[in-house]
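This section describes the prediction task in plain terms. A model, or a person checking by hand, is given the sequence of a single protein chain and must write out its three-dimensional structure as a string of tokens. No templates, partner chains or ligands are provided. The sample shown here is typical of the held-out split.
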Amino acid sequence: MTPQEVVRCMDIRYYILDAITPEEAILMLEKVHETKETRRQDALSNTAVPAYTTQAGWLGFTDDRMRELIRANVNEGMNKFKLKVGGNVEDVIRRLQIARDEIGYDRMLIIDANQVWSVPEAIDTMKNFVVFKPA
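The expected answer:
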């Protein structure tokens, strides 16, 4: 829709006219209309609004299921992945290695312990995961 068409669809009453006139609304819309396609492409390429998936990161998945879900997410264009952690450190390291093997280091890996550890425990435990470069 053109800016004029958008404004024609608006129900501009007295209380709106106190803040903005139809002409001012058209000017504002025309100004951003020039960048509309770029913003649309940014949204489609997942650069406009950062989003992540936790689909493959839930505790309890087998290693094979986790790999399968990560691969599906990568194929869908996801580039940010969140894994739930908080159990046995060796298990967390294994899962982080699987995630990094699948997503590489050019995609973001987020880890979330859901307050399983106290703050001092979290700081100490996270040192074990530095090699995986979590965000």
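For orientation: The beta strands are 80-84, 108-112.
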